Amino acid sequence: MEILTAWNAASLTGVHPYAQALANPPAELLDLTPPPLSSISSVIEKRKPFIGASIDRDQLADSLRQSHERRDAPASALRAIERLREEDCYLIIAGQQPGLLGGPLYTFYKILHAIHLSRRLSAETQKTFLPAFWNATEDDDISEIASLYWLSKEKTLAAYHWGLDKENRRPYFSISKNELPINDLLDCLRGSLHPTEFVDTILDKIRSCYDRSDSYPDFFDRLIWMLFPNEGLIIVRPDDPYIRRESRRILEREIAEPAHAAQCVEEAGARLQVQGLTPPIHKRADRTSFFLVEEGRRWPLFVRDGEFETTNGKRWSRAELLRKLDEQPEAFSASAVLRPAIQDALLPTMAAILGPNELAYHFLLKDIYAQHGVPRPCLERRFGFTLLEGREKKLLERYGLEPNDLAQHPAALAKRIAQQESGRERDAMRRAAEKALIEYFQTLEERARQTDPTILKTLEKNHRRIQQEIENSENLVSRREAEKNQTLLLQLQSLQCALLPEGDLQERRLNIFYYLLKYGPSFLTDIQKISEAAEEGAHCFISAV
Q1: Of the ranges 85-94, 370-379, 455-464, which one carries the lowest mean pLDDT score?
Q2: What radius of gyration, in Å, describes the C-alpha atoms of the chain?
Q3: Of 535, 379, 381, 383, whose CA–CA distance to 43 is shortest?
């Protein structure tokens, strides 16, 4: 496995405007721009006293230890939790929804990035940094977690779609493991992939994670720990009792000023637009920054005539909502604009690993952090990869393609390659040959008229026969080219499936278990090692074997 430098990844990924803004913020947006990792020293100075005053490390460690033991977390994670009791121990955190079998590759890359950065900062400072992952179990967009993609043995894009009711917007933590048809999922994988020596063992491990789990999110956590058993990875969930209990003080402020978050988001968004940046979201003025979880669903909450109302028609006064928060904190769920502030208020985070779209949200959150008195952590743009198996690498090199060429329609690309291989002058050469043949027989016919006109018909017959042989030869070559072009078209389609599945980056579609089932556990070791050299925000091409 190696990083490939023959191709420019930026031509495939493009440059995200918010990544540019973080690296080189316009003067007009300096106060909105989250601190980058280069500001880690000043961030530690601000967050260390806040963490010391606001977070009971023993309560945090006790709660996390209990939930991690319940989920059979590896010993390395339990040891890491114990270190959280120490004053100078902090978290580098990444997060994502609990996708099927770990979700798209970028979830795996986020965790890798958090692990590497934790080790680097620990080595460079006199402090301890630990990797953590926020399993976003309170989210409710079923479409985000219900599909799994991989490459079949025919090199087509294979998919498994979990038949959950996508209209029922319920939080993921309410999904039981029995709702996932694990036998169907594993059978689908087994039937689609090349049989290798690793398939049975790895599928058995997936099955074991499932059997030992109490819920779907537990199953996800066990899979992640199966991939990262020795890295001390702490997995935090919003349904953890500590998070539920301690987030009440933030939610109390949101209930007291329910329109404040929406106002902050809209004002920041307006400033971003002036600088040519498209805000990632807009918030209605009457929309609160949190949801209510009732009747198995996550309901948005609106402010109406001094009271709070959900879309199912239920209403609460401020006093009733505060009482419900005190008695049932699990019934409250933060929105995307409030969750980061809760995370950084309740956990000793010093940096967050974010994708480009997540980064855009943080340009809206300055005043929400300020309202709750939470100093912001550093943000680090995650690295990413496009993995090239040997076949894909050879095909790109054979046809002289750049990976971004695959954004073209396969038929158009096949035509371009065929023209390059056959030569642009082929038609001109054929016309020249036909012209020369006609001129040659015209000369013969002129000579025959002068010597023996009786052979003119024979010459005409020979001319037609040679023309027919030329046409037959052309057709034979054309048939072979057509067969080759059909093969070429299939090859290009398979390249698209592997590198730009459904027109999206590979890391946003394919799943890590496709590679593990094919190449075995050594794949994990190799990619962990090679990713140590990846830089912040970089996207690299890597040979998969």
Answers
A1: 455-464
A2: 31
A3: 379
